[in-house]
Amino acid sequence: MTITLHEVRVREVLERLFEAAEGDEGFEAPWEELRLAGAQERADALDSVYMPISARGGDLLYGLVRACRPETVVEFGTSFGISTLYLAAAVRDNGRGHVYGTEMSAVKVAAARRNLDDAGLGSVATVLPGDARRSLAGIEGPIGLVLLDGWKELCLPVLRDLEPRLAPGALVVADDIDQESMAGYLEYVRDPANGYVSVAFPVEDGMEISCRG
Predict the structure, then answer these.
(1) For residue 57, pLDDT beyond 60
(2) What are phi and psi of 53, to 5 degrees?
(3) Cβ(196)–Cβ(189) below 8 Å
């Protein structure tokens, strides 16, 4: 059985991107200044910074998509497309579905599209430019899996926008849940009254996996 994630051209792109992302470790972002900036301003200021998921987090995403076989996958926060490659590889191996990524930085949108094409996955993934709350408005349901990895204060608003289009049993995965700005999101998905069964998964900075009832 062919596993797209193990194909040479996909591994080469992922390895190149992870190697480039190591440069983030020496980058000192003016976070205090950017904290007061708007989302688009922050995206433009950090258009060379990867801020990727981990390789193990990517493997987890691949496995989740293979298991639940969603027709529509939505990603909030594409960056250079590392997580998108894992999602797209899973969709390709399922033989069905499409990934819709979102990214505010025009530089990153162009780079993510090139990376998907280089990996041979451009036909199963579309990177939408601009504010996710606008760009995702036209995505029809049912949505079977959502990855939330954009600006943390927007994760909950984006999820609330998508909720009417989530399929029963849809999975919602949020990255970097150790950040203080994710507290409100976690409180929401962990409250049974909001219709989720939710569990923290110990990958790097933590992922929250929530199943929609």
Answers:
(1) yes
(2) -70, 165
(3) yes
Closest CA to 67 of 40, 39, 97: 97
Q: Which two three-digit tokens encode residue 64?
A: 């989740």
Tokens of 212: 């929609």
For residue 103, the cross-strand partners are 129
Work out the widest C-alpha separation in the chain, in whole angstroms. 50
Enumerate the β-bridge partners of residue 209.
173, 199
User: Which strands sit side by side in the sheet containing 207-212, from one edge to the other?
Assistant: 125-129, 98-103, 72-76, 143-148, 166-175, 207-212, 196-201
Q: What's domain 4-212's architecture?
A: 3-Layer(aba) Sandwich (3.40)
Query: Residue 209: what are its φ and ψ, rounded to 5°?
Result: -110, 120
Cα 169 to its chain centre, rounded Å, is 19
Mode of pairing for the β-strands spanning 143-148 and 98-103? unpaired
Q: How far apart (Å, rounded) are the C-alpha atoms in residues 97 and 88?
A: 9
Q: Estimate the crossing angle of helix 55-68 against helix 82-94, to 10 degrees.
A: 30
Name 77's bridge partners: none
7 SS3 class:
coil
pLDDT tens per residue, range 108-167:
999 999 999 999 999 999 999 999 999 999 999 899 999 999 988 899 999 999 999 999
- Look-up: residue for tokens 């950090």? 46
d(CA 61, CA 71): 15
Amino acid at 75: E
- pTM for the model stands at 0.91
Residue 169 has phi, psi (to 5 degrees) of 85, 5
